[in-house]
C-alpha cells in the first residue's frame, strides 16, 4: 500500500497541475468581472458620433516581387522599410515612392522588419530564425549585406522585432514560444521571456513613462504583458478564440488592442486588468492580421485576411468604414509616427499609403 | 467518388475558424425558409436543379448583415474563392457577378474543412478520368500535372487507372442531370485546390504554425509557473472599469484635434496635397513651433520630454531655476538604460562623478534611502542600477518643475507666439499634381553629425533621443 501511494506517476501530476492552473484562471476571470461596472459603449453614449470622413489610397508602392509580410515607419514620418516572402527588404521614401535601399536576405519569408530610431539601420528576420541588423549606407556601390550584423538567435522562425528606445537594443518574438531582448553591438541576449505555450506572433513596446514593459500575443490565444527588466509576465489575458496575430498599445499606454484569427479585435485595459471591448461584425469572417490606432486612439485600423481594412470607432465599438483595394490578404498595417497616414502591406505584393 | 481516407490534421483545422463561420453562413443560405430561393437552371440541353443567380446571393447577404452592395459582393466572392459556391456557366472564372449568372452550392463532401489538403492520389484519379474521357486531350497545365504525378506515384499507377475506370463506369449508369452535377462539383473542387498557373491560390496560408519545431515544453515546470502567475494575478489591485473607460473618453477628446486622419492638419496633409509644409513646420529644428505642438506639451510630462524642442525649452526654464541638473541627470540615465551594454560601466561612472558624488558639480537631490541603495548598486553597475534614482528625479520634475513651467512666462510667451498655419488652398487645377520633393535621408544626417562629433568630446548630456 505504502509503495503505491509513494509512486508518483508523472502524467497524473501533469494533469493535476494543468487542472489547478485552469481553476485559477477561472477564478481570475471571476475576480476581474467584479469591478466591471460599465461597458465601454455605454460610457461612450454621451459622445457625439463621428461624421463620415474620406480615407483613400494616396500612394501605391510597387516593387516587391512577392507577398509583402511586414513594414515599419521611420521616425522621419515618410520613409518605410518593408519585407517580403522572397527575402527582399526594401527601404522606400513612401512620399515620392522611390526605393532607396534594397537588401536580399539569405532566407525566404522575412516576416519581421523594423526601422531603427535613428533612421540609420533596419532589422529583419524570418525563417532563418535570426534577427539581423543592416546599417543603411548611402554609398550606392556598397553592398549592404556585407555589413550585416546577426543579433538574435531563436530556435524557430522570427515573427516580430522592434528596436527599443535606441538603436542599441532589439526586442524579438519567435515561433519557438519565447520573446527576447538583445544587445545589438554584442549580440548578447539581455533577457528572455518565457510563458507562452505556443508560437509568439507579435509584440509591441509600451509608450509608458517608465518604458519598461511590452505586450506579446501568440498561438496560445494569450496576450502577455512583460517586465523587460525581470523577464516576468506581469499580466496575461486569454479571451480570444484563436491565434493573436497583432497587438498594439493604445497611445496613452493604459490599454492595448489585439487582432486575431477569430475575426475579432479586442481592447484590454491594464488597470482594470480585463478585456473591455470586442470589435466584431457577423459579416467579417476572416482573421485580423494587423491592427493600429490613429493618433488620438479614437480609431482602430484593422487589416484582415479577406483583403479588406476595417476602421473601428474605438469608443463606440462600431465599424466606421471598410476599405477595399488590396487584391490579397492584408498582412501588415502601421500608422505613421505623426498620424498623417497609415500604411498597409499585402500578399498582393504592394504597399498602400492611406489618408 | 473516391472515398478519401485522408486524416485531417486537427491542428490545421484549428487554424481556420473562418471556415467554420463560412460554413455556418452557407448553411443558413440554404435554409428552406430564410435562405436563398433556388430554382432550376438550364445548362445547354440539361436542366440543373437548385441553382441561384449572383444577384440572389448579393441581395441575401445585404439583407442578412445590413451591409453595402460592395461589401456583400466582396463577402460572396470569398465563398467562391474557397469553393463553397461555384459558377455554372463559366466554371474556370471564380468570380461572383451581381447579375443573373448561375451559381450552385458545393456539396459538403467537397468542403474545405472536410477535404483539405487535397490528396495527390485523388488528383491523379481525377486527371486520369479526364484523360480517358477526352482521349488524351487534356489542357496544357493539366497534362503537365498528369505527367508529373505519373512519375512521382508511378508505383500506384495501376490502382489510379483502375479507380478512374471504375468511377467512369459507375457514373455512366447515372441519370444525365446527376452526372453533370457531379462532374461540375468535382471540377469546381479541383479548380480551387489545384488552381491553374497564373490564377490566385486562395488557399495558400503561409508558413505553418505550431509545428514540431515549437520548443515550448508543456511540462510540470511550465504549469507550476503558470499557477504562480495566476495566484499573483488574483491578488492584484484593479481599478473600476468606469474610471478606466472614462479616461479613454478624455484622452480621445483631448487628442482629437491633433489627429490628422480624423480632423485634418494645417496647412494640409502632405499625403493628400503633396505639399510638405506640414512636415517643415513641425520639424525639430523649426524656429517657431505650431500652436498645437506647444499645447500638447501641457497634456502630460511625457509629451514635453518626448519632443526634443519641448525638452530644450524645459531645460532653459530649469536653468533659470537652477535645477537643470535634474533633467541632465534624467537624460544621462536614459542613455545608460538604452545604450550599448559594453559602455555601461564607464557611463555609470561618469554619471556618478557628475551627479551623485559628494561635491559633484551637478549634484542631484535624491532622498537618502534611494541614494544609499544606488551607491550600493554602483559597486556592480548594470543597466538598471540608476533606475530608482532616475524615477525619483523624474517624479520630482513632474510634480514640481513641470506644472510651474506650464505657468511660466517662458511657456505662455511661446504659446502666444506659436503659429497656427493657414490652410493650403486647394489647387485650381486638381489634376495637376505638385512635384513631390525628396528629403535628405536620416542616414546622411547622422553621418555628418558623427563626423562633427568626432572632433568634440561626447558627454553624457547628449542622451539617446532621436537625432532627427
Automatic annotation (TrEMBL), chain A:
GO BP, sorted A to Z: signal transduction
Keyword check for Repeat: yes
Region Disordered: start-end pairs: 1-21
Signal peptide: none
PROSITE patterns recorded: WD_REPEATS_1, WD_REPEATS_2, WD_REPEATS_REGION
Keyword Repeat recorded: yes
Biased composition (Polar residues): 1-12
SMART domains xref list: WD40 (SM00320)
Pfam families: WD40_Gbeta
Domain of life, per lineage: Eukaryota
Binding partners and assembly: May interact with RGS9; this interaction stabilizes both proteins and increases RGS9 GTPase-activating protein (GAP) activity, hence accelerating the deactivation of D(2) dopamine receptor-mediated signaling.
Name this protein carries in UniProt: Guanine nucleotide-binding protein subunit beta-5a-like
Source species: Carassius auratus (Goldfish)
Protein encoded by which gene: LOC113082822
From TrEMBL, chain B:
All copies of domain DEP, residue ranges: 32-107
InterPro entries: DEP_dom, G-protein_gamma-like_dom, GGL_sf, RGS, RGS6/7/9/11, RGS6/7/9/11_DHEX_sf, RGS_DHEX, RGS_sf
GO BP of this protein: G protein-coupled receptor signaling pathway; intracellular signal transduction; negative regulation of signal transduction; regulation of G protein-coupled receptor signaling pathway
Composition bias, Polar residues: 438-448, 456-468
Gene3D superfamilies to which the protein is assigned, alphabetical: 1.10.1240.60, Regulator of G-protein Signalling 4, domain 2, Transducin (heterotrimeric G protein), gamma chain, Winged helix-like DNA-binding domain superfamily/Winged helix DNA-binding domain
GO CC entries: cytoplasm; neuron projection; plasma membrane
Record CDD domains: DEP_RGS7-like, GGL
Keyword Kinase attributed: no
Keywords assigned: Signal transduction inhibitor
Region described as Disordered: spans on this chain: 430-468
GO molecular function, one term: GTPase activator activity
Domain G protein gamma, first and last residues per copy: 223-303
Domain RGS: from-to ranges: 300-415
Record protein name field: Regulator of G-protein signaling 11
Organism: Carassius auratus
The organism's taxonomic lineage, starting at the top: Eukaryota, Metazoa, Chordata, Craniata, Vertebrata
Amino acid at each position: 500500500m505504502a509503495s503505491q501511494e509513494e509512486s508518483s506517476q508523472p502524467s497524473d501530476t501533469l494533469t493535476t497541475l494543468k487542472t489547478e492552473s485552469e481553476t485559477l484562471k477561472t477564478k481570475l476571470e471571476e475576480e476581474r468581472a467584479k469591478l466591471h461596472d460599465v461597458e465601454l459603449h455605454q460610457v461612450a453614449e454621451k459622445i457625439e458620433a463621428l461624421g463620415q470622413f474620406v480615407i483613400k489610397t494616396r500612394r501605391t508602392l510597387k516593387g516587391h516581387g512577392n507577398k509583402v509580410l511586414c513594414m515599419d515607419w521611420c521616425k522621419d514620418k515618410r520613409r518605410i522599410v518593408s519585407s517580403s516572402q522572397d527575402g527582399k527588404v526594401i527601404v522606400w521614401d513612401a512620399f515620392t515612392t522611390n526605393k532607396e535601399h534594397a537588401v536580399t536576405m539569405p532566407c525566404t519569408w522575412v516576416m519581421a522588419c523594423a526601422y531603427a530610431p535613428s533612421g540609420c539601420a533596419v532589422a529583419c528576420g524570418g525563417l532563418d530564425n535570426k534577427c539581423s541588423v543592416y546599417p543603411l549606407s548611402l554609398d550606392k556601390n556598397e553592398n549592404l549585406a556585407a555589413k550585416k550584423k546577426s543579433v538574435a538567435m531563436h530556435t524557430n522562425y522570427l515573427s516580430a522585432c522592434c528596436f527599443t528606445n535606441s538603436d542599441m537594443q532589439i526586442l524579438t518574438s519567435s515561433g519557438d514560444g519565447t520573446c527576447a531582448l538583445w544587445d545589438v553591438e554584442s549580440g548578447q541576449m539581455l533577457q528572455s521571456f518565457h510563458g507562452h505555450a505556443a508560437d509568439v506572433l507579435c509584440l509591441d513596446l509600451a509608450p509608458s513613462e517608465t518604458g519598461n514593459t511590452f505586450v506579446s500575443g501568440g498561438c496560445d490565444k494569450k496576450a502577455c504583458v512583460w517586465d523587460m527588466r525581470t523577464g516576468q509576465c506581469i499580466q496575461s489575458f486569454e479571451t480570444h478564440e484563436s491565434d493573436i496575430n497583432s497587438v498594439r498599445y493604445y497611445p496613452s499606454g493604459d490599454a492595448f488592442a489585439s487582432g486575431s484569427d477569430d475575426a475579432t479585435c479586442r481592447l484590454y485595459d491594464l488597470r482594470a486588468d480585463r478585456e473591455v471591448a470586442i470589435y466584431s461584425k457577423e459579416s467579417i469572417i476572416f482573421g485580423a492580421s494587423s491592427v493600429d490606432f490613429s493618433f488620438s486612439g479614437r480609431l482602430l485600423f484593422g487589416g484582415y485576411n479577406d483583403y479588406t481594412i476595417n476602421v473601428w470607432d474605438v469608443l463606440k465599438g462600431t465599424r466606421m468604414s471598410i476599405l477595399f483595394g488590396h487584391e490579397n490578404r492584408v498582412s501588415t498595417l502601421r500608422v505613421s509616427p505623426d498620424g498623417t497616414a497609415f500604411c498597409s502591406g499585402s500578399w498582393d505584393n504592394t504597399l498602400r499609403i492611406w489618408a | 467518388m473516391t472515398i478519401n481516407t485522408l486524416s485531417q490534421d486537427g491542428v490545421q483545422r484549428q487554424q481556420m475558424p473562418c471556415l467554420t463561420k463560412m460554413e455556418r453562413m452557407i448553411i443558413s443560405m440554404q435554409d428552406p425558409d430564410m435562405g436563398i430561393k433556388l430554382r432550376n437552371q438550364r445548362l445547354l440541353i440539361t436542366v440543373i436543379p437548385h441553382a441561384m443567380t449572383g444577384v440572389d446571393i448579393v441581395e441575401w447577404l445585404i439583407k442578412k448583415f445590413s451591409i453595402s452592395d460592395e461589401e456583400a459582393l466582396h463577402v460572396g466572392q470569398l465563398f467562391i474563392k474557397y469553393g463553397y459556391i461555384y459558377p455554372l456557366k463559366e466554371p474556370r472564372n471564380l468570380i461572383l457577378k451581381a447579375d443573373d449568372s448561375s451559381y450552385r452550392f458545393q456539396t459538403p463532401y467537397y468542403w474545405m474543412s472536410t477535404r483539405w489538403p487535397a490528396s495527390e492520389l485523388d488528383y491523379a484519379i481525377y486527371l486520369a478520368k479526364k484523360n480517358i474521357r477526352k482521349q488524351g486531350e487534356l489542357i496544357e497545365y493539366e497534362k503537365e500535372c498528369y505527367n508529373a504525378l505519373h512519375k512521382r506515384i508511378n508505383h500506384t499507377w495501376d490502382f489510379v487507372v483502375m479507380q478512374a475506370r471504375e468511377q467512369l463506369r459507375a457514373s455512366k449508369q447515372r441519370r444525365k442531370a446527376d452526372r453533370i452535377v457531379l462532374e461540375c462539383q468535382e471540377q469546381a473542387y479541383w479548380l480551387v485546390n489545384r488552381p491553374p498557373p497564373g490564377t490566385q491560390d486562395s488557399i495558400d496560408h503561409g508558413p505553418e504554425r505550431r509545428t514540431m519545431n515549437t520548443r515550448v515544453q508543456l511540462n510540470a515546470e511550465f504549469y507550476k509557473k503558470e499557477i504562480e502567475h495566476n495566484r499573483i494575478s488574483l491578488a492584484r489591485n484593479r481599478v473600476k472599469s468606469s474610471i478606466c473607460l472614462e479616461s479613454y473618453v478624455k484622452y480621445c477628446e483631448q487628442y482629437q484635434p491633433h489627429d490628422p486622419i480624423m480632423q485634418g492638419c494645417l496647412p494640409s496633409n502632405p499625403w493628400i496635397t503633396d505639399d510638405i509644409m506640414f512636415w517643415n513646420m513641425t520639424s525639430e529644428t523649426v524656429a517657431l513651433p505650431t500652436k498645437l505642438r506647444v499645447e500638447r506639451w501641457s497634456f502630460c510630462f511625457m509629451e514635453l520630454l518626448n519632443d526634443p524642442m519641448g525638452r530644450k525649452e524645459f531645460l532653459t526654464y530649469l536653468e533659470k531655476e537652477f535645477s537643470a541638473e535634474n533633467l541632465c541627470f534624467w537624460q544621462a540615465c536614459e542613455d545608460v538604460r538604452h545604450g550599448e551594454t559594453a559602455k555601461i560601466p564607464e557611463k555609470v561612472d561618469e554619471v556618478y562623478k557628475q551627479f551623485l558624488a559628494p561635491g559633484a558639480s551637478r549634484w542631484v537631490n535624491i532622498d537618502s534611502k534611494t541614494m544609499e541603495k544606488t551607491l550600493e548598486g554602483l559597486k556592480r553597475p548594470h543597466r538598471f542600477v540608476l533606475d530608482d534614482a532616475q524615477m525619483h528625479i523624474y517624479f520630482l520634475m513632474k510634480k514640481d518643475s513641470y506644472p510651474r513651467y506650464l505657468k511660466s512666462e517662458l511657456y505662455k510667451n511661446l504659446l502666444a507666439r506659436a503659429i497656427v498655419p493657414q490652410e493650403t488652398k486647394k489647387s485650381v487645377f486638381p489634376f495637376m499634381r505638385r512635384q513631390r520633393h525628396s528629403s535628405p535621408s536620416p542616414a546622411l544626417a547622422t553621418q555628418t553629425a558623427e563626423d562633427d562629433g568626432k572632433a568634440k568630446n561626447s558627454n553624457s548630456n547628449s542622451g539617446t533621443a532621436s537625432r532627427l
